[in-house]
Write a structure and sequence with these properties.
Blueprint: H1 3-6, H2 19-27, H3 30-41, H4 47-69
Length: 77
Amino acid sequence: MSPIQREQPEQPHRHGGHGGHGWMMMICCIPMLIIAVVLVATGVAGVGFIFAAIMCTAMMAMMMRAMSSGGGGGEKR
């Protein structure tokens, strides 16, 4: 058999075992927060820069939560 014939049909995606992905996305926000604090501490950026970085992290957390709960937006009538 050729490799093309041996391919298995694609399995539907399940959201049950992907809790680590959300944590990984939040961990990726840590360098941005650290850079924001350093820039403010050195006087390169204003305090509003920290606010923007925190709001970015908060929005990421809300998006990840909405995606994991399903949101109900894609339901069929």
